[in-house]
Structure to design on (241 residues):
């Protein structure tokens, strides 16, 4: 089923989970790079935008229209930019109707290409691992805690169990977005649908970032437990009963 521009007074068209494609074009690979976009965060580099990424950005949930695609791709602002972009996409088998509305509200992530958002997530992960002040935070919590040491130890063991469980789920669900779509990984339950939606609107930054902070809190809990067990500030691996 193809999405067509609305002919009514609204001037908008529906947005589908998969963009309309043409069978008339020759075999076109989704990993073909169509644009080299100057980075918005790193002014000395450019990011690649593939056909697959454009398909994702045009489809639900974002449903970017030609006007916003021009901004996202850093194209020159001209009266014909929308038509030129639609014509270019048509050559690659994608139908982008004019006059349709975007699917969701703009955020700072809307202007980021996937490669840039992914790198932002990786850089955040590295910085948290190397520079987040876990030990001072543990010291502050220890000074403020009014719990008995044994009660505190039990609380920390419980927190570690929960965070380990959550971290395992994050790892299981964090299949790279492009690979997930390319390999047609089935999305068959509410959690996977929600995580896929979250990944699509943050362009993989969200799933990477949630794992980063889950690991940081897990490290905090393990180091705190080590302190209460008299092992100094070294990271512990407690045995659960």
């Amino acid at each position: 089923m193809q999405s067509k521009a609305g002919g009514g007074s609204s001037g908008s068209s529906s947005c589908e989970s998969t963009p309309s494609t043409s069978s008339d074009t020759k075999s076109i690979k989704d990993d073909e790079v169509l644009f080299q976009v100057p980075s918005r965060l790193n002014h000395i580099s450019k990011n690649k935008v593939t056909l697959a990424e454009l398909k994702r950005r045009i489809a639900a949930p974002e449903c970017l229209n030609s006007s916003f695609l021009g901004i996202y791709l850093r194209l020159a602002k001209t009266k014909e930019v929308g038509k030129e972009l639609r014509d270019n996409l048509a050559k690659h088998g994608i139908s982008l109707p004019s006059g349709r509305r975007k699917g969701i509200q703009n955020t700072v992530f809307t202007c980021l290409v996937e490669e840039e958002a992914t790198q932002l997530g990786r850089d955040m992960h590295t910085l948290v691992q190397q520079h987040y002040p876990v030990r001072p935070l543990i010291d502050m919590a220890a000074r403020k805690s009014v719990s008995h040491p044994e009660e505190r130890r039990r609380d920390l063991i419980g927190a570690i169990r929960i965070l380990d469980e959550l971290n395992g789920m994050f790892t299981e669900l964090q299949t790279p977005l492009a690979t997930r779509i390319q390999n047609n990984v089935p999305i068959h339950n509410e959690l996977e649908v929600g995580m896929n939606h979250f990944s699509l609107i943050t362009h993989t930054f969200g799933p990477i970032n949630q794992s980063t902070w889950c690991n940081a809190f897990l490290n905090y809990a393990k180091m705190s437990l080590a302190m209460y067990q008299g092992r100094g500030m070294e990271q512990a691996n407690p045995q659960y009963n």
